[in-house]
Amino acid sequence: MTVAAVDADDPRVRPLVDELTREYTSRYGPGAEQEMSRYPAEEFAPPHGALLLLLASGRPVAGGAFRRHEDPGTAEFKRIWTHSAHRRRGLARRVVAALEREAADRGYRRVLLTTGPRQPEARGLYLATGYTPLFDLAADHETIGPLPFEKLLSRAAATPAPESAATVQPPARRSSEQQLLPVAPPGGA
After folding, report:
1. Strand pairing partners for 114?
2. Strand, coil or helix: what is 110?
3. pLDDT over 90 (residue 125)
4. ω before 47 within 30° of 0 (cis)?
5. Angle between helix 120-128 and helix 91-105 axes, rounded to 10 deg
6. Is 147 helix (H, G, I), strand (E, B) or coil?
7. pTM of the model
8. Structural Rg of the chain based on CA atoms
9. What are the b/e assignments for 82-96, b being 16+ CB within 10 Å?
10. What does the pLDDT look like over 59-92, one tens digit per residue?
11. Is 101:160 a contact under the CB 8 Å cutoff?
């Protein structure tokens, strides 16, 4: 497995966008695809943003992005996704960890993100990875709307785990990837 920092127009991003759009539409109905075009691609580009793909044999199996939030020192994570054929293998956790390291390396000290009320998998992921819900967990999620979470990044987040090698470098119109984030076996964390 490799992690690649890519531009939004990289052809390997298309499967992420297509499947995520179908997922949003199946859960929220027509019009949900507008979420995918809500932000211009430049917002996910260096120096203030990043788009990362987790690749297996050159094919995207998971990914995510961040952009600069209006609050200083805050990154907003978006589009965290795992291909439907690769779920339940800990890949989304690895994407979140890579995004956190990259955001911390860029000077961000806080992450905000939201997920929809019909995405219990995402809600569980964020709770399991140390995000604080900014809503009442006991409330009916359908009445809340988007479910906001936050996490403060520590300096440790900027330091890759020993097995992780180096941090991902921003795309410089290149197609190289770095070996990062060994994948846990199915059923692993």
Report:
1. 148
2. strand
3. yes
4. yes
5. 60
6. strand
7. 0.81
8. 16
9. bbeebeebbbbbbbb
10. 999 999 999 999 989 999 999 999 989 999 999 9
11. yes
